[in-house]
Amino acid sequence: MKLFDRYIARQVFVSALYAVAVIIIILVLGNVFKEILKELAKRPDLSLGFVIKFILLVVPISLSLAIPFSFLTAILLVFGRLSADNELIAMRMAGLSMWRICVPVGALAILFTAVCLFINVTVTPWAKTEMEGMKANLFNLMRKEPMMLFPDQQVMSDLPGHLVFAKKEDGKLKGLQIIKMENQRPETFIFAREATVSVDFDSAQAEMLMDMKDVNIMAKGNEGTFMVSNQPVYMREAPFGVSIEKFRMARQAAADKPSHMGIGRLIRRSYDSTLEPKVRAACRTELSTRFAFSISCITFGLIAVPMGITAQRRESSAGFILSMIIAVTYYSLLQVASMMKEKEDMYPHLLVWIPNLIFLALGFRLFWKLSRK
């Protein structure tokens, strides 16, 4: 029996590893490289070490999604092939029940669940926090050379509440255009022929300073919409400052996101009566989601075996399409529950378990019917 168990386990495990590799390399890293190339086009001074570190941080975050889906795909493919080749019939004729045949799959489901739980609870929050910390590189860029922060002839949105567009030439910003936003609505338009940029880190409120020439300013008035109440102003020279403290505030806000918290802090905040109800609800939902999503390996394993056998297809495309349908349905239900994460009265931390309960019930029913044949 050990030989039989190793045969089934090896088939599923190897197929799952191949699926993980395909998902990470093609589907995930492909998009990551595209985004990195965009950033390098805007800021060619980014170091190779920065790019490599960013990629290494993306991989563990992607694994939490890739492992359950890959395990599902592997089972559908393996058991579909075993069924199409009549190997399952031979196993049943040898006196093995479906429950006994699937023992190796159950062991792998527990293994992958443990791996996913470790990634979701420990690695992913750490990786997300590190990625947010990499945004501090903007401070390093500003300290080294403020002009490096601005892409050439592309819209920059890194300054909180501002959109900036300019051409970089002779160490200055030419044709500078700035839109100051308030509640995602334009409040002020600034057009300048050129501007020099400097950063003041020594003052109590560190800020980026732009000394602008030939400046046209259109600011929203006290009443009415921008188009109705704007007041145009022209100045030959004008300074413009943007607080850099907002960068620190943005990083602190990112650190307080439930998805970035470690398990200990998340548990403490979930039951902290001094916090707002929506904050506690969001923390409880994130905590439940990490565990519920890890259990999806067991859920997918239970439902994939009968569906893979019933499909009876050797073609990998059929198993892949079936796994896509199951995964998309599961993740869509989970996403709907997560959308209510701040509504404490709707118990969102319990709603995230509904996809598992639905698929577990369906999987048990299908498996029971299959085992009685």
What is the spatial order of strands in the main beta sheet? 1-2-3-4-5
- Give the overall silhouette: elongated
Which residue ranges are poorly predicted, with pLDDT under 50 across at least 5 consecutive positions?
A: none
Strand content: 15-25%
Total beta strand runs? 5
The number of helical runs is: 13
Q: Rounded to an integer, what's the Rg over CA atoms?
A: 27 Å
Helical content band:
55-70%
Largest sheet: 5 strands, antiparallel
- Global mean pLDDT: 78
| Head-to-tail CA distance between termini | 22 Å
How many domains comprise the coordinates?
2
**Quaternary state, please?**
single chain
One letter per element, helices H and strands E, the order comes to HHHHHHEEEEHEHHHHHH
Output the structural class.
alpha+beta
